[in-house]
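Subgroup meeting minutes
Present: P.N., E.W., G.H.
Scribe: E.W.

1. P.N. recapped why we're keeping a running log of single-chain structure predictions: easier to compare across weeks, and new members can see raw inputs and outputs side by side.
2. G.H. added today's entry (549 aa).
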Amino acid sequence: MDLILCAGLTAVESLVANNLPGRETGPVTKQIALALFLAQYLAVKYYRIFLYHKYFSPLRHVPGPTDNHFLFGQAINFLKAETPTTLYVKWMREHPDAPFIRYLTWGNTEVLVPVNLNAHKEVLQSQCYSLQKPTWFLRIVKEVAGHGLILMEGEEHKAHRRMLGGSFSLKNIRKLEPIFQEKAKDICRYFEQSIRENDNKTGVIDCTTTFSKAILDIMGQAILGVNLDYVKPGEEGKSEESTQNGLKKGCSFHEAYDVFFSPKAMGKVLLFANGFFPTRWLPVQANREFLFAMDWLNDVLTNLIRQRYREVSAATAAGKYESKDSRDLVTFVVEESMPGGVAEGIGEKEFLGHLLEFMAAGHDTSANMLSWSLYIMALHPDVQDKLRAELNTLPPNPSYNELDKLPYLEAFSKEVLRIYSPSTTYHRAAGRDIVVEGIHIPKGTLVDLCPSTTLLNPAIWGDDVDEFDPTRWDRLTGDQASPYAFSPFSNGPRICIGRQFALFEIKTILAEMVRNYRFVGVDQGFTVENPGFTLRPHGLRVRLEQISK
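Output recorded in log:
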């Protein structure tokens, strides 16, 4: 934008100078015009980078950190932080009652972070569609997420949310009980295998790897209608790509998503730098791996969509097609895209985008929550025992209704989500000038919504905010009862469409694991992926033992 502004200004100035009456000197040369353009461009950049945020911005009085790098603001501190949310929580606790915190990032660009509940409510509810995904975020995420529900805005988002709502209705989710139960049993068999391979007493699992594969197994059946069987017993000797039932060879969903969610150092640099300037053209191995994985995902899902359309159309034309009682998302959308259906007219680009997003976001966040659940249970045996005692009252294959009636399981799940919110930030930019909590937010201002600023706010949850205490959910008072105090799935019109799906699958898996296995310790130190869009533990290995029946 600044380039266009300065180029246009230079052209006008040159035109005026060349047509001044009585002018005796020669015309403005290309060299003079270039020098004029550069001088003006540098002056504008100097103003934006070094002067605007200090002296002219309407946001300059909003509280925030002051230990800024002269050029990169807090960007370097973010990279050095222990987790993607560490700095947000630190700043929130310095200003727990403020509507917003302001921090500076690359080029001293201003970013606002909502802190108090009223600011969160306005940003997530009343100003929901006034705030859109920023350009830098789209450049990064579109590579893995395409153009689906999460990245859609305004009327398009509303239309596609209505279109997909039926597939994620409670009625349809309950039909997935057999899938969730079978995959939960596969996980337990995988645990049993890890014990056999160790000393027949205890086993050790890498939580992130194990649960990422397990949730992808569920997503494969529930979203794609495909059996992936990444953690199915008897498949451990096979490569991941050989268990994919006809899908394109050369990669797997787990391997492809690992490239995005857990890249190596160079991969992280290229991933996040690509949000600000193109990096994918660089001929380095990290780029080749990333582009191959993303091409694989796009090819596999596109072919799956086209194949399902052919199958449904052919069977319908022959008068032999019967709608399945429990439909995966692909089949649901294909059926509903027929004349008169709620998805009539959906394009392949949007269909593909929905699948890319649900597979990516849906599996990683659920896997992370299960990983943190095991970590908590390993550290708090009393919590684990109390949860097990409640779960032991269930029948062998508990239904949705039976799981939903367990108060301690519900409280445990919420407390894990409160302490370790799987989603770290939702990135937005003001699409127009808005006013929130009396603060004028100019068009283009970046806004970072971090769920942990309310989930870990002592002004809301009290001085024991950092303690894992499921019983707090039995005695909520004041602001704690606000839906905006607990927003790990976001809130408002853009609340996660798959939140009921995620909680049901997580509770089903927890019920099966905790009744059959005891989690006795964390085997070694671990880190959290940073930078990252989710709170993803890296190297979290939990030791477990089978419970004697």
